[in-house]
Task: inverse folding
């Protein structure tokens, strides 16, 4: 599964907003400069984020964007879904019994990839913007990687 630029940039921008807001609206130009993201692209993303109820906009001098609710309550999955980024690992269309193969059947590994997508969604739903801003540990992989052979040897 690959997360598109849209999803990655939306998360980067929202974490930046959470980090730099301090109760004031943050202009998109500031986020664009800090995160090295095109301003016009950010405008498109923030239109979707505003429509999804994750940010509010303030017009005029000193205007910009604010989080619609606290960073601790906003999940990474909320951000990704708000910009129409599906969180799935299969090629099949969600909610339909038809598979992605030419005869509309599902491949032998469909359940494997579907569960991987479910696990990714669960993980992203467990991480808040505040977790990222405050650099809290985000899972067991942070302590070090164990490959399959090392895991088997440890048993």
Result:
């Amino acid at each position: 599964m690959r997360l598109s630029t849209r999803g990655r940039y939306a998360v980067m921008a929202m974490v930046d907003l959470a980090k730099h807001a301090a109760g004031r609206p943050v202009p998109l130009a500031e986020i664009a400069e800090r995160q090295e993201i095109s301003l016009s692209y950010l405008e498109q993303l923030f239109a979707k984020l505003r429509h999804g109820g994750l940010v509010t906009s303030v017009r005029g001098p000193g205007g910009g964007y604010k989080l619609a609710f606290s960073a601790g309550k906003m999940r990474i999955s909320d951000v990704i879904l708000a910009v129409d980024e599906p969180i799935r690992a299969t090629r099949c269309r969600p909610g339909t019994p038809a598979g992605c193969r030419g005869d509309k059947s599902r491949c032998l590994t469909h359940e494997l990839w579907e569960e991987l997508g479910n696990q990714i969604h669960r993980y992203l739903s467990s991480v808040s913007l505040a977790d990222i801003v405050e650099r809290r540990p985000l899972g067991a992989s942070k302590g070090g990687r164990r490959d399959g052979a090392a895991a088997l040897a440890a048993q």
